[in-house]
Amino acid sequence: MRSTDTAFIQWLRTTPNLWSADLFTVTLTAEVSNPSAPTGTVWRWTTADRDISHGGTTWSAAGPRIARSSWSSKAQLEVPEMTVTIDSAASELLGDVPVNAFVNNGGFDGTRIRLERALTPTASTAAFGTILLFEGRVSTATAGRMRASLTVKGDLLLLDQQMPRNLYQANCLHTLYDSGCAVLRSRYTWTNSVGQGSIVGTIVPATPLTSLAADGAGHALDPQAFAQGAVSFTGGMNAGVVRSIKVVSGGNLGLAYPLPHAPAVGDPFQITYGCDHTAATCKARFNNLANIRAFPYIPAAETAT
């Protein structure tokens, strides 16, 4: 049973012909690498061929082409699921990067998507009313050259989590730079550019890593600390692309996955420190043991009494 206001219910009962359109409200809830689309950014898109307005809010028909799968809702503890597809050209941007780069960079991680249906007696830009059909968060997101696919799961998913919350293990459970870790990304981020000899899988920094300034805590830069960190391109053909750094060898950055385009000399990028989630690294590199979520002194099972 779906509820709405009394006037709208009466209108539905007395109106023989209806015109409808899907309305999508997309709210970003994850920290993304794209500064023009920070946490809290809201996009409103419609499947109609014109903008749809209701209650002072407008859903744009000029956004990327969006569609959805069917879904079901049951009166039991089963997580509802819906697939949303976004088709876009390379020139269409989310924030300031192409849609596929935004998706692959984790821009939709944890994003909330609300689906409503707008109803009106004719193909009008103003809806008489809306009905909430589905609401949930993105669980997985993938993107190819022209199409992105988002799997959206209902909030019952929150009940499907490991208990107890704290898993006792030697490595820290925090994600580096998240709110629990509390390390400031800006203190461990440097600006550089692509140098001669760079390829899609290896970046040769124009400024040698050993020549970069000390970190935000005043410690001398350690080139090996970039392993498990990230490189984020801010210009050139790879603008908006983020790649994990697998290894640092000879001052060059070996990427976990190749870039979509060959980097050009002079392309600007930012690099950040990584972390192996051990107590030793947390103390020596970040001086952050106060926030570590690890239990390195658990005795081995065969010696515990």
Please name the defining characteristics of this protein.
305 residues, mainly beta, Thrombin, subunit H, 7-stranded antiparallel β-sheet, 6-stranded antiparallel β-sheet
Can you walk through the features of this model?
The protein is mainly beta and 305 residues long. It has two domains: 154 residues, no CATH class; 107 residues, Beta Barrel (Thrombin, subunit H). Helix content is 8%, strand content 31%. The chain contains three helices and 17 strands. The strands form four sheets. The chain has a seven-stranded antiparallel β-sheet. 29% of the residues are buried. The model has no long low-confidence stretch (mean pLDDT 86).
Task: Please provide the count of β strands.
Answer: 17
Q: What's the main sheet like?
A: 7 strands, antiparallel
Helix content: under 10%
What is the number of domains? 2
Briefly characterize the structure.
The protein has 305 residues and is mainly beta. It has helices at residues 6-14, 99-104, 279-286, and strands at residues 19-27, 42-46, 52-54, 57-59, 65-68, 81-87, 93-94, 97-98, 112-120, 129-143, 147-154, 189-193, 202-203, 230-233, 242-249, 252-255, 268-272.
Secondary-structure blueprint:
Elements: H1 6-14, E1 19-27, E2 42-46, E3 52-54, E4 57-59, E5 65-68, E6 81-87, E7 93-94, E8 97-98, H2 99-104, E9 112-120, E10 129-143, E11 147-154, E12 189-193, E13 202-203, E14 230-233, E15 242-249, E16 252-255, E17 268-272, H3 279-286
Antiparallel strand pairs: 1-2, 1-9, 3-4, 5-6, 6-11, 7-8, 9-10, 10-11, 12-17, 13-16, 14-15, 14-17, 15-16
